[in-house]
Amino acid sequence: MSIEVILAAAAVALSIPLLWYSIASSRSQANTLELAPDGRQMADMRQLILEQGAGQRLVTPGLRTLAYRLRELSPIGRIQKLDRRIELAGITHSWSVDRVLLLKFFLAAGMVLLALGPLRSMPRAIVVLPTLVLIAYFLPNAVISNLADKRQAVILRELPDTLDQVTMAVEAGMGFEGAVDRVAAAGHGPLSHELLRFLREMQLGVSRTEALRNLGDRTDVDDLRSFVFAIIQSENYGLPIAQVLRVQASDLRDKRRSRAEERALKLPVLLIFPLAFGIFPAIFIVLLGPAAIRIFRDLGPAIS
Q1: Residue 43: DSSP 8-state
Q2: Which of 20, 28, 57, 214 is the 20 to 30 Å CA partner of 171?
Q3: How are the residues of the chain apportioned to helix, strand and coil, as percentages rounded to the nearest 5?
Q4: pLDDT tens per residue across span 172-226
Q5: With left for phi above 0 and alpha for psi between -120 and 50, is residue 95 left, alpha or beta?
Q6: What is the mean pLDDT of residues 26-41?
Q7: Radius of gyration (C-alpha) of the chain in whole angstroms
Q8: Do the Cβ atoms of 98 and 64 come closer than 8 Å?
C-alpha cells in the first residue's frame, strides 16, 4: 500500500470525529437558543442553520474547534504575544489569533505531506522534514512581526509632520480634539487611523487621559509615548497645550534629523559588503581579464 493511500485514510479517519463533534455542538447550541428567558421562541435555529452553506455548517465549526484545541495546547504567553503583534501590525480587522494558529497548523501539515509524498525520494528527507515544519510553523510569526515593525516605522516617520499640523491648528484657535480630528481626517496612514480611534474612544465616554494612554499602548512607539505623556502632564498641571505641542513638535523634528544623520554615518560600513563581493570582482575581471588571456595565449605553447 502506498504512502499516499495511508495518509488519505488517516486524514479521513481524523476528520470524521471532528465533523461529528462540530455537528453535535451546533445542534446543542441550536437547542439552547431556541427559547428566550421568558419562554418565547426567538427563532427557528434549525432553519437558520439549513439556510447556511455546506462550508458554514461543516467546515467553519470544525475549524473553530480545531483553533480552540490549538489555543489550549499553546502557552498563554505565546498567545498573548501573538495577539499583541497582531494589534501592532494593525491587522486585527482581518486576522485573529485563531486564524493565525490555523494557518500555522495547516502550513506545518502541508510540509509534512510534502516531505512524505513528493519529497520522500530525496536523500535525507527525514532530516529536512523538521526544518520544513519549523519554517512553516514560525513563518506567520515572522510575517506579522515584519508588518508590525514596518507599521511602527511609518508611524514614527509621520509623527513630526502630523504634530506640526496639529500645532498650527491649535494655534489658529481650534481645540485639541478638533485639531486632531481635522488632521486625522486628511491623512491616510496608520497614524491617522490611530488618531481617529483615539477620538472614537473619547466619543464613547473614555476620558482624554485614558484614551491617550491607549493610543500609546496600541502603537508602542517611544516618541508617541513621550508625546502622550507630555499632553497628559500639561492637562494635569494646566499648562498651555499650544506651547506643549510646539515644544514636542520641535523635539520630534530634532530626533528625526538625528536618526537620519545616524543612518548616513552607517552607510559607508554597509557599502563594504556590496563593494567587496559585487563591484570589486567585476572590476578585477575587466582590468585583469585581457592581460590573463594574453599571458595564457603567449605562454601556453611554451608550457605545453
Answers
A1: -
A2: 214
A3: 85, 0, 15
A4: 988 999 999 999 999 888 999 999 999 999 999 999 999 999 999 999 999 999 9
A5: beta
A6: 46
A7: 30
A8: yes
Cell numbers at 176, concatenated? 485639541
For the chain, give every residue range classified as CATH 1.20.81.30.
Answer: 153-260
Place of cell 581579464: 289
Q: In whole angstroms, how far apart are CA 265 and each of 22, 173, 221, 268, 277?
A: 60, 42, 24, 7, 21
Task: For residues 198 and 243, give the distance between their C-alpha atoms in angstroms, rounded to a whole number.
Answer: 22
State the CB neighbour count (10 A cutoff) for residue 191. 25
Amino acid identity, position 100: V
CATH number 1.20.81.30 is the correct assignment for the domain at 153-260: yes
Which residues have a Cβ under 8 Å from the Cβ of 135 and sit 6 or more positions away?
Answer: 111
- Contact between 155 and 100 (Cβ < 8 Å): no
Backbone phi and psi for residue 40, each to the nearest 5 degrees, phi listed first:
-75, 150
Exposure string (b/e) for 34-66, b if CB count within 10 Å is 16 or more?
eeeeeeeeeeebeeeeeeeeeeebbeebbbeeb
> Could you give the CA distance from residue 90 to residue 86 in angstroms, rounded to a whole number?
6
